[in-house]
């Protein structure tokens, strides 16, 4: 099915159905009892050897000599792979780079050797014996220094620049103006499960093949990229990711450990397993680039925006073009006749920058939603009122209608529930030693649909098997797929077997960009719809008004048990969803509003979040419990971005100096007081057959800005350099 038409009434529109119910995760018990094997724990293979990555200790230069003799002689060592003996590889695809390519070092942490031994301890000990002698060059690692020479990057999905009307003229003429620069630091995904792979290379009848048990969000994309780099036919590359301990974008593509494990297994003809250390997560795996963002707003005296300018600079590793799309959502957020957005990129001697949860929007709205707060302050207008005055009637750049847009409703609902009317003047509220303030920010995030396929099989025992190469990164995919299939077929979730996480199954979108549930769920919806039709035809039932409930299909005065219709072989159907005309005809986003109350210690500048509320819209909510958990997680991401998260780079050496979770702080329980998230009712019939929208990422967008705006309201200090640490308050 191509998404070319709005969706009419569907079986999911039942008010009391299974879809939407806050049921517990169907894989929850397996996970909490340790019976859900993650990549590193899979025991399906012959005894594996263990790999350990050796990293470059400089950020720029050349390896003059790599001494691997001691490592090779160390106990248990089976292989020391370097640029001198690595098998030939294909070209980089997406952001999957061939490994150990030559003596040139481009970033600190670049793998320079891969040591494989009988045990993990032996591999790690031998890795420490690899000695590199470098010709060191001075790295370029400062985005600030490189900003003047940053270039226009090649477009990613959308062009890097946009322009409408006469921005310069309108901005110059505006009676009220704001021209500010915000910065956001390097952020690290910090997902709980590190990158890990067990690779098994085999020579089969149809050639060389490799199976990777790996932690990966988008299996089919990873399959294609690895196939190119490993010079294999994609059908001979199998990725299996049944359980994934978080990704946040860092597992959108295979990381170096997967490529290295595959290459080593090829050489050794034995399974090779490897996990990155937490430190390697910082420099071998990817991160979100730091950004510099200039925001210019021009408004009339009533606060109507006449000019919006949002420019963003970010950094990519040498030879890569990934840029942080900070200004993309600004193109659709508020009305103004004259507008520019612009993205510029610098190639720096830093590890690979890539997508991290809400790439672009997350940091874009950290900046933009504070700039809106600054403008409200200048105009002496309530920040919600300012946003309402600039609410566009259609997409301000694409000039097409919004499929749904309840931003104003989110702000109003949130304001009422949070007690926004009690917000005091700047610096006016005190609670003992704490200066107290409230802030809000809007949230918006693109809603994409990705091609996906699914197969379903009604089994003779009345269960239904769902198969697709989808993944569950901890978000609840297993559960919502069971709910969609259960509702469509009139079966309880206990009768649905969800089998995902394997490229042997039909191709699916995977988990990323907030497209996972909608895309995979829609493919499943179509597969179930096809299965319903097949069963009705087979039974000679009138499809008109037929219902599937309680394990039976009822049409007119006939009622058949699904177990009877399944026969002795079962009945199978397939389904497919593809984006279509709705994508271009409508501007599709999820929206929300964040409200935060902070206390700032009047003496030390310490900032504590006191309470927080997020109100979101995401089309149909497929499971109120898992959706709310995702929203809370996004908001907590925002708390981290606002108050503590920053990977600090020593620009002289190109090294992240705080490369573990002891020094790269993410919010802990004590940092997260009473927070709540809720969804307003919504159905988006232009989005997908489920009428759902993405909600994994909208909840981080703007979340940190609400805290920053609250800090301003508490103290009168406007901090434009994230994170907001106490030294910047004083
Ligand atoms: Mo998300 S950064 O697409 O996992």
From TrEMBL:
It comes from the Bacteria. Residues 33-138 form the Aldehyde oxidase/xanthine dehydrogenase a/b hammerhead domain. Signal peptide: none annotated. SMART domains: Ald_Xan_dh_C. It holds the Pfam family Ald_Xan_dh_C. This is Aldehyde oxidoreductase molybdenum-binding subunit PaoC. It comes from Methylorubrum suomiense. The gene is paoC_3.
């Amino acid at each position: 099915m191509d998404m070319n038409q709005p969706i009419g009434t569907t079986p999911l529109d039942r008010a009391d159905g299974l879809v939407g119910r806050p049921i517990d995760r169907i894989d929850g018990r397996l996970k909490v009892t340790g019976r859900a094997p993650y990549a590193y724990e899979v025991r399906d293979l012959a005894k594996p050897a263990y790999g350990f990555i050796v990293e470059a200790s400089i950020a720029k230069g050349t390896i003059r000599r790599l001494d691997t003799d001691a490592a090779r002689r160390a106990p248990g060592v089976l292989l020391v792979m370097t640029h001198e003996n690595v098998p030939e590889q294909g070209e980089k695809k997406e952001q999957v780079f061939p490994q150990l390519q030559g003596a040139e070092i481009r970033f600190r942490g670049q793998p320079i050797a891969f040591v494989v031994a009988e045990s993990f301890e032996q591999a790690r000990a031998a890795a420490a014996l690899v000695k590199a002698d470098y010709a060191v060059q001075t790295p370029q690692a400062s985005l600030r220094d490189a900003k003047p020479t940053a270039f226009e990057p090649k477009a990613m999905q959308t062009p890097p620049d946009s322009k409408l009307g006469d921005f310069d003229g309108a901005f110059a003429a505006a009676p009220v103006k704001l021209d500010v620069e915000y910065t956001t630091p390097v952020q690290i995904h910090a997902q709980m499960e590190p990158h890990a792979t067990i690779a098994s290379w085999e020579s089969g009848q149809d050639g060389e093949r490799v199976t990777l048990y790996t932690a990966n969000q988008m299996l089919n994309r990873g399959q294609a990229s690895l196939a190119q780099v490993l010079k294999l036919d994609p059908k001979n590359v199998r990725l299996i990711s049944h359980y994934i301990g978080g990704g946040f974008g860092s597992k959108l593509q295979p990381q170096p450990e997967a490529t290295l494990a595959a290459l080593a297994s090829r050489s050794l003809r034995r399974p090779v397993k490897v996990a990155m250390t937490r430190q390697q997560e910082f420099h071998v795996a990817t991160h979100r680039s730091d950004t510099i963002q200039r925001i210019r707003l021009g408004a009339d005296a009533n606060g109507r925006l006449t000019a919006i300018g949002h420019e963003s600079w970010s950094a990519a590793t040498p030879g890569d073009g990934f840029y942080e799309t900070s200004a993309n959502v600004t193109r659709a957020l508020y009305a103004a006749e004259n507008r520019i957005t612009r993205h510029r990129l610098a190639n720096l001697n830093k590890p690979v920058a890539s997508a991290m949860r809400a790439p672009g929007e997350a940091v874009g709205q950290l900046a933009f939603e504070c700039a809106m707060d600054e403008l409200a302050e200048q105009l002496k207008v309530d920040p919600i009122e300012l946003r309402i005055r600039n609410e566009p009637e259609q997409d301000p750049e694409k000039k097409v209608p919004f499929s749904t847009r309840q931003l104003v409703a989110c702000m109003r609902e949130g304001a009422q529930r949070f007690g926004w009317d009690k917000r005091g003047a700047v610096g006016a509220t005190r609670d003992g030693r704490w200066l107290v303030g409230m802030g809000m920010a809007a949230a918006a995030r693109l809603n994409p649909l990705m091609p996906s396929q699914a197969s379903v099989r009604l089994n003779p025992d009345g269960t239904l098997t769902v198969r697709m190469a989808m993944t569950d990164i901890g978000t609840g995919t297993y559960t919502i797929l069971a709910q969609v299939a259960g509702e469509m077929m009139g079966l309880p979730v206990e009768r649905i077997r969800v089998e995902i996480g394997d490229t042997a199954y039909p191709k699916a979108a995977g988990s990323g960009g907030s497209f996972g549930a909608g895309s995979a769920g829609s493919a499943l919806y179509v597969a179930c719809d096809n299965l319903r039709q097949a069963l009705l035809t087979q039974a000679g039932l009138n499809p008109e008004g037929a219902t599937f409930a309680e394990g039976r299909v009822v049409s007119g005065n006939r009622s058949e048990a699904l177990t009877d219709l399944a026969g002795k072989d079962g009945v199978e159907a397939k389904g497919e969803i593809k984006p279509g005309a709705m994508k271009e005809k409508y501007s599709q986003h999820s929206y929300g509003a964040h409200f935060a109350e902070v206390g700032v210690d009047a003496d030390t500048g310490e900032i504590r979040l006191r309470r927080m509320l997020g109100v979101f819209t995401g089309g149909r909510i497929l499971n109120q419990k898992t959706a709310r958990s995702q929203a809370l997680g996004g908001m907590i991401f925002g708390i981290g971005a606002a108050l503590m998260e920053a990977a600090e780079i020593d620009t002289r050496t190109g090294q992240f100096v705080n490369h573990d979770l002891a020094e790269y702080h993410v919010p802990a329980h004590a940092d997260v007081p009473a927070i709540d998230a809720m969804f307003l009712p919504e159905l988006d019939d232009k989005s997908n057959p489920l009428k759902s929208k993405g909600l994994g990422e909208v909840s981080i967008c703007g979340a940190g800005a609400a805290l920053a705006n609250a800090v301003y309201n508490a103290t009168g200090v406007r901090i434009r350099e994230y994170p907001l640490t106490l030294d910047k308050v004083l």
